[in-house]
Amino acid sequence: TVEQLYPFPYTQLAPFLSGFPKLKKVVWAQEEPKNMGAWLYIRPKLRNILADVGLDKVELDYAGRGYRASPATGSPKGHEREQLDIIKQVFS
What we know:
single chain, two-stranded parallel sheet
């Protein structure tokens, strides 16, 4: 879990990630749409850390809503369905 985005917690994440030499995939999960949350800021930072610790072949993936003009789904049932989809994306 990354709880602080700025300043980016490089010194905490680098040794943590380097502790998994057989790591295959890192998934960034967020509830906000892809263009509204931290993904576009975090992706290059995670890619740099993975490269710096020798894990540049690790797949970096996104789990969350797609690009949107509004963060709201519009209905509680639609929101619940999207939440379940995000959880499935994270754990699949």
